[in-house]
Known about the structure:
Layout: H1 10-13, H2 16-36, H3 42-54, E1 57-58, H4 59-66, H5 70-82, E2 86-91, E3 94-102, H6 104-125, H7 130-147
Antiparallel strand pairs: 1-3, 2-3
Helix pairs in contact: 2-6, 3-6, 4-5
Amino acid sequence: MSATPEPTPARLRAIPSRLIAGVAAVADRLVNERLAAVDARKWHFAVLTALAEDGAASQAELSRRTGIYRSDMVAVLNELGDAAYIRRAPDPADRRRNVITLTAEGRRRREHLDALVADAQRELLAPLDPDQQGELTRLLTVLTEHHRPGHPDPHDAK
Length: 158
């Protein structure tokens, strides 16, 4: 058995879905490592960003905005609420639901997490020049929009 790894077969190196999956795994690792270093997760970043960009929302609306399943959203909101990054308050229009808002501390936390995510993106995209980075983002956006079916919730099927 040789000490140097065998090259990946040419056919495998030419399959876009395989290449995307491989890079996605690296991207996920880079982001997760940086966020974990400050006791955060990518879902924390997603919720804080959605609130910062689009304002207060119900739990169901946040689930749709971020693609986080509603059942998982509860745990994420509990973690963010316990840290005082968000506030839950009854919706004046419908007291059966809560409205989630970003606190000042949550805004600062989102800015910090955003810097960490940006750093991970710089490392991931380092081999590409700025034009290539923009083109990659554009192409990935086209693919994402084309294949976006909406985010199914397992409870909707019942």
